[in-house]
Amino acid sequence: MFRARRIAIYGKGGIGKSSTASNVAAACADCGYSVSIIGCDPKSDSSITLLKGERIPTVMDLLRNKVELCEDNVVYEGYKGVKCVEVGGPEPGVGCAGRGIIVAVTALQKITTAITESDLVIYDVPGDIVCGGFSAPIQKGLVSEAYILSSGEYMPVYAANNICKGLEKLNMPLSGVICNSRNVPREEEILTEFASEIGSKLVAFIPKDNVVQDCERDGFSVIEKAPDSEIAGVYRKLATAIMDCEESAIPNALDDERLRELLMM
Ligand code: ADP
Ligand code: MG
Predict the structure, then answer these.
(1) I need a surface site. Which of 4, 74, 244, 254 has the fewest CB within 10 A?
(2) Tens of pLDDT along the chain (265 residues)?
(3) Count of CB atoms within 10 A of residue 70's CB?
(4) What's the gap in Å between 56 CA and the centre of ligand 2?
(5) What is the per-residue burial (b if ≥16 Cβ within 10 Å, else e) of 35-56?
(6) Which residue's CA lies nearest to atom 27 of ligand 1?
């Protein structure tokens, strides 16, 4: 049965959150769902491949320039009507990303219905800092389930486990672990086991494929630019799994010793 989705995608910086978020958004839009993507990472590149490579003004930039926020200067329609918002980041060395995200999502609630009325809203959240920025969309009650993206490498899995600790504290259910492959040996095995031990499951294995970067360089998702590629099929399958998900559970993070054991499996 159809149920509107409010999801956050977490994972170590550079692991592929924005690529995954934008391709899933595009795949769901192809299926006729109304979709919004809220980029909360200071890199503000979550939606760029849905907007033919164009950067949109960020909420933080508008606020810094004392521009009054309204739907027209904050929410931009991209591929197949996907609504795109970029929160943006603080000035390096000055502000706090977490604080900015809280200010931005609070403002968003007042100026747009995109975040309440879409069939799917994806929050592309910074995952290295498990602090205010990490939890802002959750604490504002805007997110109802989380996904964690990881490869089988040590640092991303370590970050994934830390994220689990954060989700546990916030009482936020996890709907699955997604492997974005870096071609590490036994990657699928490691992440299947990790997912199972934290009380979740591996919902997708996305291969490492240069098509992703090639399309991105031209300003497109693979769904738009290379719809017949193998990896486009993987993103479509993940999109279906997300829209049809029926089970999620608050994760139980592993202790450090078990995590090390697992990674040396
Ligand atoms: P994050 O948002 O987690 O910081 P990005 O989505 O920006 O990470 O991805 C980082 C880089 O990895 C980008 O250049 C992107 O094109 C590339 N990338 C992501 N997923 C894949 C993949 N499955 N295969 C090949 N390259 C990928
Ligand atoms: Mg990103």
Answers:
(1) 244
(2) 678 999 999 999 999 999 999 999 999 999 999 999 999 888 889 999 999 999 999 998 998 899 999 999 999 999 999 999 999 877 666 666 777 788 888 889 899 999 889 999 999 988 666 566 667 778 788 899 999 999 999 999 999 999 999 999 989 999 999 999 999 999 999 999 999 999 999 999 999 999 999 999 999 999 999 999 999 999 999 999 999 999 999 999 999 999 999 998 6
(3) 12
(4) 15
(5) bbbbbbbbbbbbbbbbbeeeeb
(6) 212
